[in-house]
């Protein structure tokens, strides 16, 4: 689709033709099925995370998301339960047989987060934190690299290249909206970048419509749209009591909305002859 | 979804609960089916437009798009066949039983374009050309209002309000991408605005992935995504010889790509229990 | 500063080395002095425009700005006094020996506005209204082309090229801020484009810090900055009662702020060995 | 200028009326004079940094800038001399009696950079690296916080609030351009934010027109403009051989351009009855 010489190599389709598949203990990402990652914005307390986790397990969700260390715009906002949050999330996930994805904010935290998470997430504010990317290039667990809020596709792929060139090829990309002048939505979800990424790179692409729009009412249609745009999965925020969430309540799905999402995504995946990962009890990989 | 008092009225769901349905002689827009509007960026000559029109008619496409007066960034670029282009497009559409949509660039041209078109399009550069909007508020034919390339949703709805408040309620909105820092795609197609528009307004919403991405290879997935985002239709550019097109060749579909689009959109519409308008031989309204 | 072949010609320094100087009856723009254009956002009534005009004349301001036809985002906002406003502004300017600049919104209004104005302004929403640009290319009065709110420099120069290529070389450019994610200011005033424009084009460049920032408190420093960035002039909004203005009151200077502006701009211009146009009683050209 | 309750406190004018003055051993920032910070994008070798430093010392420049750890978009680009670069810069600065500012990219590097630098810079990609901000809140040396490339003023001030609320009030802000659709300049230098920042906050504000524009030819006018916009200082890139620089050569000033800058900034500062810090042999604080 592009003829000029690309500045990235290891992440490109030219380098590796076949899709990268990231295997987890209970599922895989990028292998032809649609991954559905879900959980609260932040782990708030034991009751909350176990309640949500139990609910998700009924839908057979394979991967639990949740923030323990939270990058917050204000120093006076809730900053997460930190290590306690990691432990709670790990325990909840283990009880229900799920994998854990959570954000790592700093090189100093890589070791700690590595201990509790199955996938380490780099947040939008850290997409170009190159020391962190280098540290993550030396681990043997998968990394989800969220797009910087004003990053071009090329910068994003070059950030991924930092991880691959350091030795870790278990990288997935996550589109989570970019910053524009439009303020009716929290960010502008750039679904057009998804098929373009799939064309130029072999890495799995996940879409986060919760961050990408900031409005729970449009998370379901945007999730469906993401799948047909070619995403390998969707990551959404869900909460047992969104109106009392300590962060991002406006964009968190109610339980019944999540159930509706699952039903609709199953129908949507069929258009492409795919299934949701939660449609299988067994390891898909 | 929003609590604060809105500055627009006639375009809002509060003013009118039911969806606006725009009836044409051979189909309708906004009435529950998915409209597929197609044609070349610009009418170039008799052979081109009749060839394309004949092709589209085989797929039972109801609405032909094409530019006769072309707003071009450079004064030295092809500016369209003007009135000759209008006549050619009208003749081709009439031969194959299709409706015509084409752009009107100026108040002075409203009368002329009205004579040949079934839907008058306001282009992105003219979304806030208020004299033109007022002139179009006095006609009895439908208007497609494309989003300004840096317009907020509120400004867009207020532009539509100009037309409705002047007396013409046959208005449809067209998302065609906004301008951001990302240059891998021509524009950033803002699909997130589609479900939000459908929530706050009763007007039909069309998505133009050709303008919105500028890359023919991603027009098909983005069209499918648009339908699941909630769009009432999709408008795409198609050309018999894209590589020789006088304008926007890179984003024009080849005929076989268009056929693939139709097949995939039919499957996609089913997810929402909808049909494409071209699936019916009869007037749908 | 740029090596690649430019898509514009007549507006370029390659085409014409010397600066374009636009002569008015009482001053000139682009001739080495700094033009100070001032007046209300909109003409509201006879008392208002004459009061402001009398005030400005005491500072020897040469060019009166004011809106008669106002492009407003909402159809329910004050739309200007239209022809009555043009007449009032002309009369006020004539009484005090000033030139008039005002916006022309549509091809149908060119003849009328031409009759009353000395400079015809194309607003930001119409920068790519090519029919209007063509109409203005056929008149013998100067045109001020405001930058589109999301236009690149190249698009802006190509819009100017429309006017020059049609036969009118009396064109000046006006930077008025672009649209970004930053909302602490109304727009982001792009002063960096000023020296670049002066390098690649021979056309005069005016800066509008009132529109560009939306905050009267920072209009004075931004005007000074504009002059040292290389602007040929500054256009500001001033009102006798900003808090009661029918439009854009927040960005209109109080009279004492305007006097402060004049004092500071005189000092600023000296840094570049220039003078304000209002420092001369005579025609400068 | 704003009435609504602000989310930041310690950085605000309401909290502290008088300007914050940051004292260094040989000068001060924010104390009424204009600071001129200069040096290469990156330290490349001993000869380069000593040559540049000797040149700058002839102009009595007080603060040397230079990168040792370089955040580069591509992992394959020159990443800086790291600790060797820090040592070279420290030695060069000590020889010529200058202070050193350089970037710290990670919490793990704070201790090392602290040892060699007088001011620790947080780069645009790390503005919201909250772990790094917290680490810097615990040191007793000044911090320059560059604006994130897509940060709002509020987010920027909240990032500064992280540092102040942790105990370090020696913070200066640096505007270095934001990301927009305009690509004629590398970034869009947002000078309008400068007077607004000075109004709402007591922190010193520095402008970086080298990063902000990417074009050396417009660095001089934009530096002058920055001073009249209200900046407390300007930081520019200068190189003995820009065309052979290992990074950012296009935006680095030639020596004679730097001399011209000094001459013009002296004249500019006089407009505001200020002096450049390099006009004094003695400690200004």
In total, the number of strands of chain A is: 10
Q: What's the CATH class of chain A, please?
A: Alpha Beta
Task: Give the strand order, joined by hyphens, for the main sheet of chain A.
Answer: 3-4-5-6-7-8-9-10
State the order of secondary-structure elements of chain A, H for helix, E for strand: EEEHEHEHEHEHEHEHHEH
Low-confidence region ranges of chain A: none
Which descriptor suits the 3D outline of chain A?
Answer: globular
* Major interchain interface with per-chain residue totals: A-B, 43 and 43 residues
Average pLDDT taken over every residue of chain A: 95
Global structural class of chain A: alpha/beta
Any idea of the CATH topology of chain A? TIM Barrel
The biggest sheet of chain A amounts to: 8 strands, parallel, barrel
Multimeric organization: homotetramer
Helix coverage percent of chain A: 25-40%
Range of strand content of chain A: 5-15%
CATH architecture of chain A: Alpha-Beta Barrel
In angstroms, what is the radius of gyration of chain A? 17 Å
In total, the number of domains of chain A comes to 1
CATH superfamily of chain A: Aldolase class I
Helical element count of chain A? 9
The N- to C-terminal Cα distance of chain A equals 30 Å
What does this structure look like?
The structure is a homotetramer of 285-residue chains. Chain A has 285 residues and is of the alpha/beta class. The first copy, chain A, has helices at 46-58, 83-95, 110-116, 130-136, 153-166, 193-200, 209-213, 219-229, 255-271; strands spanning 22-23, 28-29, 35-39, 63-65, 99-103, 119-122, 143-146, 171-175, 205-207, 233-237. In chain A, 33% of the residues lie in helices and 13% in strands. In chain A, the strands form two sheets. Chain A has an eight-stranded parallel barrel, surrounded by seven helices. Chain A has a two-stranded antiparallel ribbon with strand order 1-2. The radius of gyration of chain A is 17 Å and the shape is globular. In chain A, 63% of the residues are buried. At the C-D interface, α6, α7, α8 and α9 of C face α6, α7, α8 and α9 of D.
């Amino acid at each position: 689709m592009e003829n000029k010489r690309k500045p990235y190599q290891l992440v490109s389709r030219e380098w590796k033709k076949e899709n990268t598949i990231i295997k987890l203990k209970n599922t895989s990402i990028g292998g032809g099925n649609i991954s559905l990652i879900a959980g609260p914005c932040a782990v708030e307390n034991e009751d909350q995370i176990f309640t949500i986790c139990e609910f998700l397990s009924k839908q057979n969700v394979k991967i639990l998301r949740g923030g323990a260390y939270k990058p917050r715009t204000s120093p006076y906002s809730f900053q997460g339960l930190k290590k306690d949050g990691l432990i709670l999330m790990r325990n909840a996930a283990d009880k229900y047989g799920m994998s854990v994805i959570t954000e790592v904010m700093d090189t100093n935290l890589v070791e700690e987060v590595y201990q509790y998470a199955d996938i380490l997430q780099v947040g939008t504010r850290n997409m170009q934190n190159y020391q962190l990317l280098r540290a993550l290039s030396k681990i043997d667990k998968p990394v989800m690299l969220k797009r910087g809020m004003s990053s071009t596709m090329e910068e994003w792929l070059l950030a991924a290249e930092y991880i691959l060139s350091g030795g870790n090829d278990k990288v997935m990309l996550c589109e989570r909206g970019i910053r524009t002048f439009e303020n009716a939505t929290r960010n502008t979800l750039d679904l057009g970048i998804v098929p373009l990424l799939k064309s130029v790179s072999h890495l799995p692409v996940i879409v986060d419509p919760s961050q990408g729009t900031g409005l729970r009412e449009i998370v379901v249609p945007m999730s469906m749209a993401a799948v047909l745009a070619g995403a390998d999965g969707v990551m959404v925020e869900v909460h047992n009591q969104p109106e009392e969430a300590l962060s991002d309540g406006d964009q968190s799905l109610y339980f019944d909305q999540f159930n509706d999402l699952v039903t609709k995504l199953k129908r949507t995946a069929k258009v492409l002859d795919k299934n949701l990962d939660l449609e299988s009890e067994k390891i898909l990989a």
